[in-house]
Design brief:
CATH architecture: 2-Layer Sandwich
CATH class: Alpha Beta
Order of helices and strands: EHEE
Helix content: 10-25%
Distance between the termini: 19 Å
CATH topology: Dodecin subunit-like
Radius of gyration: 15 Å
Oligomer: single chain
CATH superfamily: Flavin-binding protein dodecin
Number of domains: 1
Number of strands: 3
Length: 75
């Protein structure tokens, strides 16, 4: 049986690392989405102040399965 998936785009930021920004994106998405399968990082950027990186930013795509059984809502 084929699965139906949805892809959403998320932006996230962390003062620690790009990995932390990715985890924050997944953690936040998990509050309202079920069945998250993957995250694809489209873009990495960083804010710089006085010659130092102050913030790590990602632009990502998160993929999750849509529920197809009757009685369950699709998100």
């Amino acid at each position: 049986m084929p699965k139906v998936v949805k892809v959403i785009e998320l932006l996230s930021e962390s003062p620690k690392s790009w990995e932390d920004a990715a985890q924050s994106a997944v953690s936040e998405a998990s509050k309202t989405l079920r069945n998250i399968r993957s995250i694809y990082i489209k873009e990495f950027t960083a804010a710089v102040d006085n010659g130092k990186v102050t913030s790590y930013r990602i632009n990502s795509k998160v993929t999750f399965d849509l529920e197809t059984e009757r009685g369950k809502s699709r998100r």
